[in-house]
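so ive been stuck on this for like two days lol. basically i have the seq below and the ligand is 6CM, smiles is in there too. i just want the complex predicted, nothing fancy, no docking runs or whatever. if the output looks off dont worry ill sanity check it later, just need somthing to start from for the group meeting slides
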Amino acid sequence: MLLQEFSVLEKQPTLLSSQLFYRNSVADLTLNRVMLFWKRVDMSRRHARSFLCVSKDAKNTFLLLNDIIVARETEEGGQKNKQGGKKEKVPLHSYGFTVSYADRTKHHRWRCKALMFHCKDKSQCQQWVQTINDQLSLLCSRPKRLLVYINPYSGKRLGKRIYEQRVAPLFAQASISTDVIVTKHANHARDHLETEADVEQYDGVVCVGGDGMFSEIIHSLLYRTQRVSGVDHHQYDQDLVPCDLRVGIIPAGSTDCICYATTGTNDPVTSALHIVLGDSQPIDVSSVHHNNTFLRYSTSLLGYGFYGDMLMDSERKRWMGPARYDLSGVKMFLNHHYYKGTVSFLPAEGNLEFPKDKMGCRSPCHICKTSVNRLSLSGDQVCEMAKEKSDREMSDDGAWHVIRGTFLAINAVCISCACPRSPGGLSPSAHLADGTMDLILVHRASRLDFLRHLIRHTNKDDQFNLSFVEVHRVRQFRFAPEQSDVTSEAELSECSRKIGTAQVGSAPTGPGTSHSSWSCDGEILPQAAIQVSVHCQLVKLFARGIEWGSSSTHSHCL
Ligand SMILES: Nc1ncnc2c1ncn2[C@@H]1O[C@H](COP(=O)(O)OP(=O)(O)OP(=O)(O)O)[C@@H](O)[C@H]1O
Ligand SMILES: CCCCCCCCCCCCC/C=C/[C@@H](O)[C@H](CO)NC(=O)CCCCC
Ligand SMILES: [Ca+2]
């Protein structure tokens, strides 16, 4: 925080102010509506009326109220500094209180820290604790009751342990009550949310797992929201209603790209702290249709060709955990399949160069902020928007771009899809909440060139700066695979076996057939011909987006 900003916040009306002990010296501590700040007092110089006075060069130190988790009376004899474990000497008074707060550390990670203040008597101590906690209770974006689903088989199967050891204690500290369900089978969370859970009583849903688990949960929430609002999601181009309930992700999966792309890390404690602080980050969601039938929502990767084949292959290797993706990735790379088809897309207005602009989405992102946020619009504004949309569509037909080609991969992402394997993600400049997706077309190329493209996802080189790769920022796209002349019975039954269901009228897909299949956030879609449309800010997460700088800007000392 800049000194000028501090000076503005400092002028907020004071709620409580006292001289008490902090780190073995006297400090002036003040609480106002936005922060808690203190200044050490010069013990050597005394005022006429024997008050200790603040030395001129003393530094102001502060904590924003938004970052404070809770204040508690410190138990007698418990004057240990939580971080260092070092005992603080209590100069005069044995009454004290601890302020727990969330602090941003290196690499976008947040940690829970604590400060101790010592008071002259118990009532002063109680007054401080009460006043700080009263102010915290006014922060209405903080959740009080959460519904938690744990997938015990995600990633390295550590979900339950991660939740119990690293997350539950933080929720308890923040007095958040939880109902925890450890899932017993795929779609357990979906069915529970749809049929049993009394969603109204919760301030959010938390999923402990990976992108697949997150996808399961948002499907239930979005189905429910559309049903309650009378919206038919089968109608392509239908405006969908954003989901009220926020979702928190405690990363425990194999890819964890939604968590990584919205917090900058896949760290369970960081995610837990974003939940505790009540942070909010909307994200775009795309809906995938086949003719007039809704198939699925997508928030991470909708991938045909390389990623679709890789996912289909890796599903049979689930027992291997996250390593299944590496093995199937190498296999699909060596297979080097390419697929013919036609991609048509509607570019986002005026944004053509943006996927390559290297600006990225950094919180607070003005591009996402200025994108239409239906939640904040009045009824009249919604009508106006609907009219604008239909005007745009009338003139849209000519705006559709059509590309017929042979592709190694077709990837569509609503967000960057940054993840530990690829810290920039599939489209490093994609925005979390701007109502657009980036469509990446990887045309037929040699194995070596494709490898160059893939490797660039793992370093700072530009994966789009290759002649066979094109990227477009779009609002909608369609894909039609080239019809194969012969569809053998054997191909059809192989397809049904792979996706575990017989799809009437769908051509066989996957490696070894003329069509690939779409991986939609880790689920295989039965149809190759799809229509996709982005919905701006349809779901909100307990997250803050990725902030500037990788190390602590949260220094509380000015
Ligand atoms: N108890 C369970 N047993 C088996 N499958 C489950 C269970 N609970 C949830 N699932 C399913 O497991 C799938 C994958 O889970 P999840 O996404 O959490 O882990 P992952 O696949 O290892 O990680 P990622 O999706 O990040 O690659 C989800 O689609 C979910 O439907
Ligand atoms: C030579 C080195 C090449 C390395 C290339 C790395 C490129 C990584 C980009 C990863 C983008 C992940 C997008 C998210 C996809 C999830 O919805 C999905 C289901 O969980 N996971 C995967 O498909 C699993 C995706 C796993 C990719 C390896
Ligand atoms: Ca977007």
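The mean pLDDT is 86. The chain has three domains: 3-137, 142-280+542-558, 285-369+398-484+502-536.
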